[in-house]
Amino acid sequence: MGSMAEKWEELSGKNNWDGLLDPLDVDLRRYIIQYGELAHVTYDTFIDDKASKYAGASRYSMENLFARAGLDSSKYKVTKYFYATSSMPLPAAFILKSASREAWSKESNFMGYIAVATDEGKVSLGRRDIVVAWRGTIQTLEWVNDLEFLLIPGPKVFGNGGLIPLFQPLVHHGFYNVYTSESSRSKFNQTSARDQVLAEVKRLVEEYKDEEVSITVAGHSLGASLATLNAVDIAFNGINKTSEGKEFPVSAFVFASPKVGDLNFQKAFSKLKHLHILRIHNLLDIVPKYPPIGYFDVGQEIVIDTTKSPYLKLNPGDPHTRHNLEGYLHGIDGTQGIGVLAGFKLEVNRDLALVNRIWDILKDEYLVPGAWWVEKNKGMVQQQDGKWLLMDREDYDIIMTEL
User: Fold this and answer.
1) Which CATH number goes with the domain that contains 237?
2) Which residue from 16, 22, 222, 378 could staple onto 136, CB 3.0 to 4.6 Å apart?
3) Is 221 a catalytic site residue?
């Protein structure tokens, strides 16, 4: 950990990861996995059972989030949960709605969290790191085909003036809508996910303005596209600047990310000298190839190929084998390149059991049940009178969290 603390600027992309990608530096492997795990927490805590009145909410409180998700709770402290809604029809995988008449919200979903390094974490990380983790979707991948690939201007990110339409950055309509939508019908989205995140990041930047600070954004799948948009937004609009004008670096680690914008979006990104994005792409995963026309990638790319792993089932007909986040982290651990002669060797030795956390992709010989990350009895709790009730969320006040 000492070397990672000393190398954090390099690992965060100060030199665009020059010399670290091929072969993949072992400290960078650990670094990427660290942020992948922080992104995975958004899945671990998300209640995806429509039978629950808390469907779409976080199962765990901010105070207990990391401990409940099995991560070291001493490095970061969660300072805010943020929520998203949409003002346009979107695939159900984007915004999950409870079937209960007592639903906590009919309009909003938990979309991620913001955390900041603790004093103890600052020592091991080498600086005061502010993390924004965006939730993706673990539903079926049909949402990729259901999306319209319409490109629209992003005035809330890039403003309205100064550019003729020919040079205006355009972004994906659906991603932009989730990122910027408000709803007067939801107490959780009186302001958009964008505004909630930017306000909290700005507050933390100002609180720690006299320290060495970084801003790191992470996400997977849909969350990766939102993380990309958010990272560009933070850097473009100076959310990473203190009131005295000091500018902190912004990095994004995005896994299985769809493309977000057009050529002008790519050009706008390339002008942001304090922003660095690293995209991790599993070779046979279809999602990073979408949308196929009119969109351009941003940042540096690492391509992995988990079909080379001797630990995983091939499952050629199952796209989730190539797309799920735990599979990606396993790939980062073991990738030795994607050439014909490239092998696969675990360098970080991350626990193999985690590969089966959400899906069943680990070979049966390792005796790890598939999709083992489930709430005990699926959240059903027996009462004193012998009856069973669905009680699948920690007893914390969602409204106070939002306020």
Assistant:
1) 3.40.50.1820
2) 222
3) yes
